[in-house]
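Notes, p. 3: input format for complexes.
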Amino acid sequence: MIKLGAKYFKNNGQVIYGISLIILTLLLIVLNTVVVLNSSKRNMHASLQLQGLYLSRQFITTSYQEFADKDYGSLQDKLDRIRQASPHIIKMDVLEKNGEIFNIVASLDRDSIGSEAKDTNYILSWAVDNVIATDLPDTRENSKGSRLWEIVTPVHDDNGDKKAIVVLQLSDEIIADLEKDILGKSSAVLLATLLIVGLLLTLNARLFEYAILFKKLKEVDTMKDEFISIASHELRTPITTIKGFLSMLLEGDYGSLGEEGTKTLKIMDASVKRLGSLVEDLLNVSRIEQNRLKLSSSKVNAKEIIDSIGDEFELRVKEKNLKLKLQIADDLPNVFADEDKLRQILVNLVGNSVKYTKQGEIEIIAKVVDKKFVNITIKDTGIGMTAQEREQLFEKFYRIQGDDTKGIVGTGLGLWITKQLVELQGGEIFVDSIKHVGSQFYFTVPIYAGQKYLDEEEKNK
Ligand code: ADP
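Output follows (461 residues plus adenosine-5'-diphosphate):
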């Protein structure tokens, strides 16, 4: 089971990558919440301390006269008012130094007035004559582990002589409450984020499945390509043998066959030729798809090739009572192409024109366009096609099904192969057609000089 899991992960790196990203995102969200919470807690503590300092200072400066007159009764009145206004002040005492000890002379806790107090911070503040602020644990009952800030401030008279100290304690309960509130809210946000990430994870699980399926599909596709390639290769040899013997039989090498026999052999010969061209098409498809088709481009005389194609089709055109016209520009330049491939493109396009034309003519026109390309057009007065039928024309195995095409055999591979060959040579192919009027296929091939010109342009970059 573990082995199976390990194998699954090994084969599906993207799954581990996806899950790691999700876990990392979650960790970052949690980390961010903790960091934000801590820093806001620190800020709140600092502002609580400042608040304590400010309150003590304000109390002392607004009670300057009372301190000078030792009017502890008025000070007590003020403290009573503060008690009502600020409930989170848990202690505020005014202490007078009496020898080694301090006496409480006014306090928020009226019961403590008159009692003695001895505290290191009081002594220290008095001795260094400065404010002492300390963070202490809250020892009151029900304090729930909260802490408090104690601010001890010395009070001076006009001559700068120390008169008393003011002790103020502020509880951080208010911070704890705020913290609880923030924690509650951020936990809710975190939970919602977790939920969304969970949902994403389930969605991703499906995406992972698709990714695996896609990988499998690609494997099957490669297997199919290999199968077609091997099968076509294996079929080639017996087809060549059959073709050879058939032509020997037809030529009478094994004696006369009689009219019936010759007729049957001719049908066989046509079928084997069709089988052969199907196998060739399949081999070309697999070569192109597996990037195994190598071009050996060089300077090619396009006019000569078009002329020879014209000769090649002369008989078939005549048999169908069609006319074949060539219109080649006199100054047609050489092209930069693979001669065999250029020939194959022309055979496919002219072959289709003959195949899909019942009457009229076929024209091959060759001229220069844009000074860089030779444009070759194959025009026919055939069955034509609608705009909708044209849409998928260059797709593999696409054949137009209709009354006009009934009985015309083909594989639907020719135009796909043609387009690939044109583009591999640096050209483009287009089609114009009107149903029942005719079609016009035109493609471009780079001019040989144009190729040189392109190379130079490349060098100058
Ligand atoms: P095939 O001719 O073997 O069926 P192609 O890929 O060469 O395959 O052509 C695809 C389809 O395009 C053909 O089945 C035919 O319907 C249509 N087609 C191709 N050339 C012409 C043409 N010149 N005129 C009308 N239809 C054509």
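The longest helix spans residues 173-250.
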